[in-house]
């Protein structure tokens, strides 16, 4: 996967340094370097990027102000010489905040964070669109249709996938990664050991999800998300 990125910085030396970093990072494709947010706005409207290295303190339009009008899917890494802007940066959902002078190690760490986040989003979109995934089980790759999944149980380093036809599939897999990849809110974590296919839920008893004779617990950590889902679908 290659990420299209751009740099916005009104300091030529800082912009040049970031450009050199981007050009030597294998998974980044630099679309453009701009001296102001207004200049970038004209080009990025027609050539959107997935990742933006954005200076905060700039004339006419600050990086914070510009971030507020960007599409939500554009990931932002703020670059600035002023540490006091960090809290403001996170208020507009920046994925990282780099303090000048920026080392390549810090640049690469922030870029890798964006890469991991965008890779996960891409898998989510693929799973949601194609409606299936492949899982490893007993040295085989098994195709699992998302619509056939009732729920998933975490068992230390393994997961057990329960299907509507009664089949159970064991796979060596990370529960958190699986949670990240499956489309939300169709699939929601209800407990550290369970992910539930919410569109397959037909019964809830005392705030436990019921599949036949199996009761899936809902822990306090995930209660708000589950309650919100039920509230959105509740006829009252």
Give the structure's gist in a few sentences.
The chain has about 240 residues and is an alpha/beta fold.
How many helix segments?
7
Class per helix and strand makeup: alpha/beta
Q: Count all strands and give the number.
A: 15
Helix/strand order, N-terminal first: EHEHEHEHEHEEEEEHEEEEEH
Q: If you had to describe this structure to a student in words, what would you say it looks like?
A:
With 236 residues, this protein is of the alpha/beta class. Helices cover 32% and strands 32% of the residues. It has a five-stranded parallel sheet. It has a five-stranded antiparallel sheet with strand order 10-9-8-12-11. Strands 13-14-15 form a three-stranded antiparallel sheet, with no helix packed on it. It is elongated. The N and C termini lie far apart (46 Å).
Helix-strand blueprint:
Elements: E1 3-8, H1 12-23, E2 28-34, H2 37-44, E3 51-55, H3 63-67, E4 75-80, H4 86-91, E5 96-99, H5 104-130, E6 132-137, E7 140-145, E8 149-155, E9 158-163, E10 168-172, H6 175-181, E11 187-191, E12 194-197, E13 204-205, E14 208-211, E15 214-216, H7 223-232
Parallel strand pairs: 1-2, 1-3, 3-4, 4-5
Antiparallel strand pairs: 6-7, 8-9, 8-12, 9-10, 11-12, 13-14, 14-15
Name the descriptors.
five-stranded antiparallel β-sheet; 15 strands; elongated; alpha/beta; 236 residues
């Amino acid at each position: 996967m290659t990420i299209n990125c751009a740099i916005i910085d009104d300091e030529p030396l800082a912009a040049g340094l970031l450009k050199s970093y981007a050009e030597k990072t294998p998974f980044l494709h630099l679309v453009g370097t701009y001296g102001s947010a207004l200049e970038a706005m004209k080009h990025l409207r027609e050539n959107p990027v997935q990742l933006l290295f954005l200076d905060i303190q700039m004339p006419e339009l600050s990086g914070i102000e510009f971030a507020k009008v960007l599409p939500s899917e554009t990931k932002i890494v703020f670059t600035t010489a002023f540490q006091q802007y960090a809290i403001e940066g996170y208020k507009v959902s920046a994925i990282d905040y780099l303090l000048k002078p920026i080392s390549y190690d810090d640049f690469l760490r922030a870029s890798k964070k964006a890469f991991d986040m965008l890779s996960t989003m891409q898998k989510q979109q693929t799973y949601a669109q194609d409606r299936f995934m492949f899982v490893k089980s007993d040295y085989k790759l098994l195709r699992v249709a998302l619509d056939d999944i009732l729920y998933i149980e975490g068992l230390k380093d393994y997961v057990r996938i329960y299907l509507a036809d009664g089949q159970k599939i064991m796979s060596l897999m990370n529960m958190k990664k699986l949670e990240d990849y499956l489309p939300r809110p169709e699939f929601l974590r209800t407990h550290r050991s369970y992910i539930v296919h919410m569109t397959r839920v037909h019964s809830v008893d005392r705030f436990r999800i019921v599949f036949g004779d199996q009761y899936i617990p809902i822990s306090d950590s995930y209660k708000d998300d589950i309650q919100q889902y039920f509230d959105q679908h509740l006829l009252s």
